[in-house]
């Protein structure tokens, strides 16, 4: 079970309740209080593992200062356009695993995605590497994440894509491939939740 964002918002039906200016309405409470409740759930046998999502390194430090149970994972947006190297290294030092969402840059999401971010699956570098290995661009992006020691949770509704996403364990990207992909890092988010920039716990104001 994860704390999906470190930001408390006003309770209601909307994931991000907004005011008249299009900014999120903050709620009471703090992620440290939620974490203590999750720890209680573990103690009661209701939950096996607990983790976080979209936390920056400063928020993780504050959480670790009060935690009895260390987060098992930090689930973050990660793809070749947003490689999150510093945050990954920080979490590795703290023995917190990384799970990547948006590994394919989520080109099909029309609701929350920043449509100004290019479609990773048509990037010439990714397409070139895919042709080299006789794979699809999606398989290259997923394999890249795996070779960086990151768990992936690609979303697919089509059975063909589901099968394709699993066929990434019988090949490897070489050093030249990895070097080319590393140069694609632009530090741009598909899911920057800009409506939350006013929140005191907005996680993406920090570099990592």
Automatic annotation (TrEMBL):
Entry-linked PANTHER family: ALDO/KETO REDUCTASE (PTHR11732)
Pfam families: Aldo_ket_red
Domain NADP-dependent oxidoreductase: 3-185
InterPro entries per UniProt: AKR, Aldo/ket_reductase_CS, NAD(P)_OxRdtase_dom_sf, NADP_OxRdtase_dom
Taxon lineage: Eukaryota, Metazoa, Ecdysozoa, Nematoda, Chromadorea
PROSITE patterns for the chain: ALDOKETO_REDUCTASE_2
Name of the molecule in the record: NADP-dependent oxidoreductase domain-containing protein
Highest taxon, organism lineage: Eukaryota
GO MF, one annotated term: oxidoreductase activity
Record's signal peptide: none
């Amino acid at each position: 079970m994860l704390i999906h964002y470190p930001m408390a918002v006003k309770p209601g039906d909307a994931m991000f309740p907004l005011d008249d200016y299009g900014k999120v309405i903050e709620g009471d409470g703090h992620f440290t209080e939620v974490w203590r409740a999750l720890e209680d759930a573990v103690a009661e046998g209701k939950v096996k593992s607990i983790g976080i999502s979209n936390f920056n390194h400063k928020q993780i430090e504050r959480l670790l200062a009060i935690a009895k149970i260390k987060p098992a994972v930090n689930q973050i947006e990660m793809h070749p356009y947003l490689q999150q190297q510093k945050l990954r290294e920080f979490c590795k030092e703290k023995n917190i695993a990384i799970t990547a969402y948006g590994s394919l840059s989520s080109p099909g999401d029309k609701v929350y995605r920043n449509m100004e971010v290019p479609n990773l699956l048509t990037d010439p570098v990714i397409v070139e590497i895919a042709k080299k290995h006789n794979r699809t661009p999606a398989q290259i992006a997923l394999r890249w994440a795996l070779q960086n020691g990151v768990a992936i949770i690609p979303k697919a509704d089509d059975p063909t894509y589901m099968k394709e996403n699993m066929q990434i364990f019988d090949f490897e990207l070489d050093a030249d491939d990895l070097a080319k992909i590393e140069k694609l890092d632009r530090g741009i988010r598909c899911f920057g939740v800009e409506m939350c920039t006013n929140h005191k716990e907005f996680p993406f104001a920090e570099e990592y």
